[in-house]
């Protein structure tokens, strides 16, 4: 295992040795940005690792340094909350390939210039290897639990399959063991929007003052639709027009839902790197836990002694309940203890991030079991 040092003042782990990758390469000079909340006990057995989703980051509780907004899961994590920092030491790390302090395409390469598209292809399992390096550096041999939603759930499943002794429990929310053709298709639309933007410059845009903001904005708009539900969109916007003195027709944002999506796209460009979006979406598309283990999903969990809980949402059409059931069936086939619940919520895939009291009860109950 690579040696490392923790830069306590900035919550960054620096690996002293290159990180081996699934593609056969090794990534040198890896930095892993993370946050930790709550106290690690003397036995170092009360730690929970939270794995973030595609456009998430380590700022699970603290205000985001670029947007100033509260942490993305502040409603779930904290003193007295379902993931209780009075009881647990909660760690969240920015995945490699991202752009919030961990090594990614915007980071300096060995020659001093940003990696850009020279950055090696990464996988979900590569992200997990970086998490394991962080745990090793912190001296945590076994986690109380790993918790993740969406792409975070993929990381949790990958960690369970490849490092089965490193956690006693896994909580997987609104996730899947592999992407469907539809999932891959939506991601490809976003990638093509980015690469079609003249400002992308084959990924070498860092020295030009601006990146492919229009393409990244469109990519975010397309993806954001998949995170919502028809019920939620209809309730929030319907076919309502923008408030104007005169009714206009054309290509302005006439409908409220248009304005909402444009805002989501534009605000996203201020906090996320376009090349990171390309690399991370590709890592998600490559993820296939069954293929990694001889083509049978149950094989991924044969070494596990942990307990599992999977949660899906009835309005999530990105990762519908059938995807969670496939994982549950595989865990059952491996003789692994697992609980499963489908919750009702109007918010679609984003339900795991929003106010769903039933989810709070599931999370708290499972972690305190």
Automatic annotation (TrEMBL):
Residues 46-353 form the AB hydrolase-1 domain. Its EC number is 2.3.1.31. Coiled coil: none annotated. Keywords: Acyltransferase, Amino-acid biosynthesis, Cytoplasm, Methionine biosynthesis, Transferase. It is an enzyme of class 2 (transferase). Its main location: cytoplasm. Pfam families: Abhydrolase_1. InterPro entries: AB_hydrolase_1 (IPR000073), AB_hydrolase_fold (IPR029058), HAT_MetX-like (IPR008220). The active site is at residues 150, 316, 349. Substrate binds at residues 220, 350. One of its GO terms (cellular component) is cytoplasm. Homodimer. Transfers an acetyl group from acetyl-CoA to L-homoserine, forming acetyl-L-homoserine. PANTHER family: HOMOSERINE O-ACETYLTRANSFERASE. This is Homoserine O-acetyltransferase.
């Amino acid at each position: 295992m690579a040696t490392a040092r923790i830069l306590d003042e900035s919550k960054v782990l620096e690996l002293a040795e290159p990180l081996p990758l699934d593609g056969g390469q090794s990534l040198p000079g890896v930095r892993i940005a993370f946050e930790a909340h709550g106290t690690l006990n003397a036995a170092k057995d009360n730690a929970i690792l939270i794995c973030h989703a595609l456009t998430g980051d380590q700022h699970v509780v603290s205000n985001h340094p670029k947007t100033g907004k509260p942490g993305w899961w502040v409603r779930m994590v904290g003193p007295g909350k379902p993931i209780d920092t009075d009881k647990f030491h909660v760690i969240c790390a920015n995945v490699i390939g991202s752009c919030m302090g961990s090594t990614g395409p915007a980071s300096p390469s060995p020659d001093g210039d940003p990696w850009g598209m020279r950055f090696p292809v990464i996988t979900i399992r590569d992200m997990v290897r970086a998490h394991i390096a962080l745990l090793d550096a912190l001296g945590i041999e076994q986690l109380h639990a790993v918790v993740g939603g969406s792409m975070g759930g993929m990381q949790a499943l990958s960690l369970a399959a490849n490092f089965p002794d490193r956690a006693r429990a896994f909580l997987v929310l609104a996730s899947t063991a592999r992407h469907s053709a539809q999932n891959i298709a939506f991601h490809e639309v976003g990638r093509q929007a980015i690469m079609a933007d003249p400002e992308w410059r084959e990924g070498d845009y860092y020295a030009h003052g601006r990146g492919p903001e229009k393409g990244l904005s469109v990519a975010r708009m397309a993806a954001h639709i998949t995170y919502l539900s028809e019920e939620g969109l209809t309730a929030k916007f319907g076919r309502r027009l923008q408030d104007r003195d005169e009714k206009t027709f054309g290509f302005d944002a006439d409908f409220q839902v248009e304005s909402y999506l444009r805002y989501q796209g534009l605000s996203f460009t201020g906090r996320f790197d376009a090349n990171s979006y390309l690399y991370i979406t590709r890592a998600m598309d490559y993820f296939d836990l069954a293929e990694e283990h001889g083509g049978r999903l149950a094989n991924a969990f044969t070494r596990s002694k942990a307990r599992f809980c999977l949660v899906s949402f009835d309005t999530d059409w990105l990762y519908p309940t059938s995807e969670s059931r496939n994982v549950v069936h595989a865990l059952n086939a491996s003789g692994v203890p697992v609980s499963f619940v489908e919750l009702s919520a109007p918010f679609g895939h984003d339900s795991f991030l929003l106010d769903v009291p039933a989810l709070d009860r599931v999370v708290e109950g499972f972690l305190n079991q």
